[in-house]
């Protein structure tokens, strides 16, 4: 009897203990999985620290930076009130935000630009510096004018918008910095500089006619994307040869798009854009439309044809030539002398006629960027035949 009840008691006790242990184990398993789920794939393995951009698809609280035991002196957390959750990894000197646009610290950009001494350009919004990041990557850092009246929120909104614009004919945004009251934008570096520097620098080899038409087509594609591909559509407002940059392979990309013009307004109270490229319709109506960009693009096309800046009387020159062109003569007389007569006269006529449509005083008579892309593409396609 005693043996039996002992056996029973031991059995019950062991059963209960095992049951409790199982329940506790199950409880912790569920807890752990919930936690794992919440922190996405940012595990505790330090080797993964900065390997990928931590984007959590369904985070409950997307503005919380999740850190764990790997958070050491090399990591700081930055809390943003607008949903840009950031991680800083010392080894990559960069922060990946939820939006996918890396955020850099002021200090890193200061180092990368040799304390802001590697000046490569001066845009409407402030100086542009060449920077070598610790990874070896070369980028261009645009420091927005400090007298900017733009607040943090507006700047972040702009960065979000810019970060969504991606096209092979745009100089894409690859990062930003908002620290110490400074706003900076980090862009892909374009080794061959601006189109203006190729057209107007006598110590550089002249661009061939064929290349000029290809550059024009690249620019038109970039603008077409801004006008018709981007949501919401973006009007560039400052299309000009110094805003067109060339990559290693001499493919053209449009720069300086999508920025609000606050800085420019505050510096020059009345007219925005660049003199010589400004749509006359805009000057009278003060409203910028896609067709104002088409006008500026037409001026750019004539620059490519004639190798002369708007400030050098380009349009007066074009008007004179247009009279002859109407009388059945061709546009040959305006062609850049640096081409030494090496060009296809038929192509020059087609491109000039297109450019002339783009600068029609009446904006409704101008083609859309989509029409322009088609016209230029057909010029290039006809070459192979
Ligand atoms: C960077 O330049 C500023 C002035 O332009 C100077 O005050 C500062 O000490 C420099 N910093 C470094 C780290 O060289
Ligand atoms: C012109 O081009 C040469 C060589 O490509 C370059 O060294 C020089 O700085 C350029 N000049 C200007 C004004 O851009
Ligand atoms: C463009 O850049 C590449 C690489 O930097 C260079 O080799 C090439 O000569 C440049 N082309 C022109 C036309 O300057
Ligand atoms: C401001 O606009 C005036 C004409 O309205 C022009 O003469 C001047 O150069 C402009 N200044 C800047 C900094 O663009
Ligand atoms: C504008 O386009 C219309 C229609 O193509 C044309 O009749 C007119 O002459 C053009 N005006 C100018 C100033 O080019």
UniProtKB/TrEMBL annotation:
GO terms assigned for molecular function: ATP binding; protein serine/threonine kinase activity
Transmembrane segments: 6-30
Listed EC numbers: 2.7.11.1
InterPro entries to which the protein is assigned, alphabetical: Kinase-like_dom_sf, Prot_kinase_dom, Ser-Thr/Tyr_kinase_cat_dom, Ser/Thr_kinase_AS
Main EC class the enzyme belongs to: transferase
Domain Protein kinase span(s) in chain numbering: 114-380
Name this polypeptide is given: Putative leucine-rich repeat receptor-like serine/threonine-protein kinase
Organism per entry: Apostasia shenzhenica
């Amino acid at each position: 009897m005693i043996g039996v009840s002992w056996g029973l008691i031991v059995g019950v006790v062991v059963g209960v203990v095992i049951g409790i242990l199982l329940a506790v184990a199950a409880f912790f398993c569920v807890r752990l999985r919930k936690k794992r789920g919440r922190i996405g794939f940012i595990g505790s393995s330090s080797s993964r620290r900065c390997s990928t951009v931590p984007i959590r698809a369904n985070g409950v609280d997307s503005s919380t930076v999740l850190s764990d035991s790997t958070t050491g002196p090399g990591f700081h957390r930055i809390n943003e009130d607008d949903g840009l959750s950031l991680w800083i990894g010392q080894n990559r000197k960069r922060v990946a935000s939820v939006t996918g646009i890396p955020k850099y610290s002021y200090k890193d950009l200061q180092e990368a630009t040799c304390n802001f001494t590697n000046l490569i350009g001066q845009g409407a919004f402030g100086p542009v510096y060449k920077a070598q990041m610790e990874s070896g990557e070369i980028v261009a850092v645009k420091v927005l004018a400090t007298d900017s009246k733009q607040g943090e929120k507006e700047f972040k909104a702009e960065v979000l918008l810019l970060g969504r614009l991606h096209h092979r004919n745009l100089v894409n945004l690859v990062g930003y910095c908002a620290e110490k009251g400074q706003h900076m934008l980090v862009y892909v570096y374009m080794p061959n500089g601006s189109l203006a520097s190729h057209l107007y620098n006598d110590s550089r080899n002249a661009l061939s006619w064929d290349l000029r038409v290809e550059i024009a087509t690249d620019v038109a594609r970039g603008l077409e994307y801004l006008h018709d591909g981007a949501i919401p559509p973006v009007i560039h407002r400052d299309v000009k040869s110094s805003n067109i940059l060339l990559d290693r392979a001499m493919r053209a990309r449009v720069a300086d798009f999508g920025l609000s013009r606050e800085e420019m307004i505050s510096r020059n109270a009345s007219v925005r854009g660049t003199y010589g490229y400004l749509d006359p319709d805009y000057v009278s109506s003060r409203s910028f439309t896609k067709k104002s960009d088409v006008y500026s693009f037409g001026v750019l096309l004539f620059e490519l044809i004639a190798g002369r800046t708007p400030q050098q009387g380009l349009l007066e020159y074009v008007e004179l030539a247009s009279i002859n062109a109407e009388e059945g003569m061709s546009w040959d007389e305006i062609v850049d002398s640096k081409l030494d007569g090496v060009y296809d006269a038929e192509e020059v006529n087609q491109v000039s006629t297109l450019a002339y449509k783009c600068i029609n005083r009446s904006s409704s008579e101008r083609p859309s960027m989509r029409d322009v892309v088609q016209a230029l593409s057909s010029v290039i396609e006809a070459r192979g035949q």
